[in-house]
Design goal:
Oligomer: single chain
Number of strands: 7
Number of helices: 2
Structural class: mainly beta
Distance between the termini: 70 Å
Order of helices and strands: EEEEHEEHE
Strand order of the largest sheet: 1-3-4-6-5
Strand content: 35-45%
Mean pLDDT: 78
């Protein structure tokens, strides 16, 4: 099974970052993605997607991305359901971002504050899942017998 989404679009507003009670950053943002075909009036329409990013990816979005920035988002679709305060059931499909890249140049004022590198593409990825250390292995055994050790108490050592 595969659940993968890749979008290229513009941020509708600045990312909104909150922190969980455990201190984990979570960013919410909305991305407008132009359709590839024109409507009857000859204009391109856009689709709007809700995106959620966690941890370092959320902090990257907060620090380096803002309204109007062209971004690439790589992630997965997730369907959330909940009960609203009025008792009605609600649901929402969102993209959970694993990787976000800023694709356009920063604004001149932003670039000068960041050291003047306005042509670099910015990116951050979610850290890879933690890997368990490999179990210890027994030393390899050789088919040859080990050479005898020198032992002063061995009466047959000279033979």
């Amino acid at each position: 099974m595969l659940n993968r989404v890749v979008l290229v679009g513009r941020l509708v507003a600045d990312p909104e970052v909150k922190y969980t009670t455990q201190g984990v950053a979570v960013a919410s943002m909305r991305v407008a993605v132009n359709r590839v075909t024109k409507n009857e009036q000859g204009e391109y329409e856009a689709d709007f997607f809700n995106v959620t990013a966690w941890r370092r990816t959320a902090e990257f979005a907060q620090n380096y991305l803002g309204k109007g920035r062209l971004v690439s988002i790589d992630g997965r679709l997730q369907n959330r359901t909940w009960v609203a305060q009025d008792g009605s059931k609600r649901s929402m499909v969102e993209i959970v971002a694993d990787n976000i890249e800023g694709l356009d140049r920063k604004h001149d004022s932003e670039a000068s504050a960041m050291g003047g590198h306005d042509d670099e593409i910015e990116t951050v990825s979610a850290p890879p899942p933690a890997r368990r250390p490999a179990p210890p292995t027994a030393p390899a055994r050789s088919s040859k017998p080990a050479p005898p050790e020198d032992d002063d108490d061995d009466p047959f050592a000279d033979e």
